[in-house]
């Protein structure tokens, strides 16, 4: 690694981020000599943020990935039908595993890439860096908003609409804020086991309860192998984007891998996570839809009946807030690291570091709460997020990375032909979701407001 020489012939070794900044021709400014205290703080910081093994990475990815996506699956199956729903759930999951593999390969080839935005710089220079930065932060804030909305729905369900929806939204935002404060992903991994147990138990209770209720009713469910008869283009694309939302783990992968002590082990993590996701999502969507039928609700826990849904939401509270908070942490780590790129403050182990960190997480959480109140309907909020951002981070951006950063030789050579085909499929899927999903989301929001199906923004009534 290069060194920065000082006038008194002393030198310091710059961080990878600083080296990258220099290599791209940006002005760094005067670099002062670090004090012994600052050097110790930096060493402690580097050690603190370099503790993830592949098993902990898997847990952190599970925390980030398996949450809201599973709750929207049964409603997506109801729109698309059992056959198309299953094919899309498995197919998009396998594509997501592959695109995540490409993301990991980029990280191994370019170790200085700390966040998705750094990959944007490699592909498109400063423009790519700023574009990816904006999309990266907006998507993570959308995810915080989604979890704020789900928390509000959960509290309203548990209390029988015992308070104004805005109050529960504020409570949810405060919980997300507090859980997002630990800045290291290794610390979040400790909560991951609670998170995973929470969502599995909540889904299990919902599946069993809906099955028992169907048996008690005594007549067959009206589920269908084929798309719903009244499902149009907009409905179908909303359902597809809800499935896409469930496979959004690639967005945080650069950030998580940056804390790994053995980054090449990431392949184990993405395969374990991908298979777990595909199994959980497919079974959740298929079983609950088969038991409930066309009347299944989103989030799916609402379909379990009044008493059981309360139990399920109570058990699901940890996953709603733990999984939601890590998105705020990732966004905060990126912004904080960018602001304090050349300062010991970026390690968040000084008074200034902690004050700036708490302030930043508070601002991000507040914006997420505003989004949740402005778009107070679950499926469409997921659809907008999937269409605008996840379509890129999970599908067409990794495909572009392979062509621009990973590929060796002609894309039409014998050894590259399979990979070329796979990446073209990823790219096309991403662009279709971007265009079709965005159009469908906007149309559905306008339609639902026009017919009065959903409450207004910043209203006390329950979200849709």
Automatic annotation (TrEMBL):
- Gene Ontology molecular function terms on file: L-amino acid transmembrane transporter activity
Fetch the InterPro entries from UniProt: AA_transpt_TM
UniProt membrane topology term: Multi-pass membrane protein
Give UniProt keywords alphabetically: Membrane, Transmembrane, Transmembrane helix
GO terms under cellular component: membrane
Origin superkingdom: Eukaryota
What's the protein here called?
Amino acid transporter transmembrane domain-containing protein
